[in-house]
Structure prediction request, 65 residues.
Amino acid sequence: MSKALEACQKVVAEKQFTKVDGVLLDLFTASAIVQVHGALSPTNQAKFAVLPLTKMASVALSCLK
Prediction:
């Protein structure tokens, strides 16, 4: 699991924003990333996990629309 994804899970568990690789990660965005990651197939989860945090957020938020 990637550092960014672990940080997202930590933010959701603690309900506290944090800074990851110079990017502030809020609870709403972290929750969206974790939910989208959980809904993907194992193959796509592996592809999603290696994306940079900003790209993960972009993909996750576009899936929520």
The chain has four helices and two strands. The longest strand covers residues 18-20. The mean pLDDT is 93.
